[in-house]
Structures are given as C-alpha cells and as structure tokens.
Amino acid sequence: MTDVIAAPPQPRIPIGSTDGATFPVRRIHCVGRNFAEHAREMGAAAPASKASRGNPVFFCKPADALVVDGVVPYPRGTTELHHEIELVVALGADAPPGLLDPAHAEALVFGYAVGLDLTRRDLQAAAKAKGLPWDTGKAFDDSAPVSRLVPAAECGDISTRSLTLEINGEVRQHGKLADLIWDVPEILHELSKLYALRAGDLVFMGTPAGVGPLQPGDRFRASLDGVVEFDGRIVTGDSDAG
C-alpha cells in the first residue's frame, strides 16, 4: 500500500524531565461545565448534589490542536478568544470492552498535565443560540496548549491539587480539583458509555470559574500546584481576527 500524500506527524507531548521521551496522542476528549461556579458563569444550572448531576457534557478537539511549546497564534475568525485552564488526564492503557468500572479507571491513567481549552467564545455563543454544535468554537487549530506530562506515580492524590492560571502576572482562574462535579474515575466511566477509550487518549477535565479574554502579546502561566507549570504567550495569528 502506498500513501498518495505524506502522512502527517502524530502529535506528541513530552514526558516529565525524561530526555526525549514523548506521549503520542490519539484523541482529545473534553468535559464541559465540570465546576459548578463555571457552569453558573456560563448561564447554566449547577447541580445541588451528586444525585442531581444528570449527564456530563462532552466534546472533542482534534489531536493536532495541541501546542506543546507554549506559542499560541491568535486564531482566525474570532474577536473573543477565551482561556479555560484544565487538568489533563493521559491514558496509558486501553479500557476493557464494555462499561468501565470507576474502581478500575485510575489504573488506565499514565499521567497528568495542565492545559488550556481555548475557546472562540463568540462563535460558541452564536452556535448555542441557534442550537448548533460547538465545533467552530472549540475544535480549531492550536486550541489545546498543554504542558509536559507527569507520570501519575509522581503526582500523589490528584484530588488534593488545585489549578491556577495567571495572565500577565495576574491570577485569572483558581480552582480546587476536589470541587469537580465529576472526578477522573467518574468521567472515564461516563466516557466509556460513548467511546472505546484507548492508550493515547487525553481528557481535558473542565475549567473553574474566571474564564476571560486573551489578546496577542498576553503571557500565561498555568499550574497544577506541586506537579507542573506551563508558560506561554499569545502571538499575532496569520489572518485578521474579524
């Protein structure tokens, strides 16, 4: 069999401080409205208890939306690029066939990172208003900046950690992972109802309150406290934002 075009390189994330080791990425799953305060700031109802959670909101980004060097071009087609800091979960093993037991879910996790679910908020809002999918607001080029991966064994109990995002030295977002509406095992269980989870999958776990705009020239520092930090900047894109 002969390819008629050159095969694109597989997106990869560097691992920890290991020299040259990388994690090849297959698919990016994302969770929406997984912090109550963020759900409220986006105009959605937040559950009062676990029993009233309903179903999580899922969407996807293409694997080649990853940015690992921190240099993010301002995307075309928008004037409202927003930041959303998130815990990123990397799966190092395939889930067994069928429904994944939450008690076995964490055994699939290779490691954790911190990332940004960048959003073209104006395009997302327009799609929501018409009852259309969010793809143009979420699944665009360079929309998934992510730090190096840290193996799970080096992270300790991830539920005790918190996320912080600084823009130009000012804290914009901060949230405790203990406040997730659905934790990592629960989200992997819910995803297994819809998808075959495989080694190489990433899961962006949702953002705390405080999302807001980014402009060319802005610098960001995203941190998963005690685990990893990720510095980057927004640069002028290749076309007019409007």
Short key terms for the protein model shown above:
alpha+beta; single chain; Fumarylacetoacetate hydrolase, domain 2; six-stranded mixed β-sheet; 242 residues; 5 helices; five-stranded mixed β-sheet
Report on the structure:
With about 240 residues, the chain is α+β, with helices and mostly antiparallel strands. The chain has a single domain (about 25-45, about 50-235), classed as Alpha-Beta Complex (Fumarylacetoacetate hydrolase, domain 2), CATH 3.90.850.10. It has helices at about 35-40, 100-105, 120-130, 135-140, 185-190, and strands at about 10-15, 20-25, 25-30, 55-60, 65, 70-75, 80-85, 85-90, 110-115, 120, 145, 150, 160-165, 170-175, 200-205, 210-215, 220-225, 230-235. A six-stranded mixed sheet has the order 4-3-15-8-9-12, covered by helices on one side. A five-stranded mixed sheet has the order 6-18-17-13-14, with no helix packed on it. It starts with 11 loop residues before the first strand and ends in a 7-residue tail after the last strand.
Which series of helices and strands comes N to C? Answer: EEEHEEEEEHEEHHEEEEHEEEE
Count of the domains: 1
Strand line-up of the largest beta sheet: 4-3-15-8-9-12
- Rg: 17 Å
Mean pLDDT: 93
Biggest beta-sheet profile: 6 strands, mixed
CATH superfamily: Fumarylacetoacetase-like, C-terminal domain
Termini gap:
43 Å
Helix content: 10-25%
CATH class: Alpha Beta
Give me the oligomer status.
Answer: single chain
Work out the strand percent.
25-35%
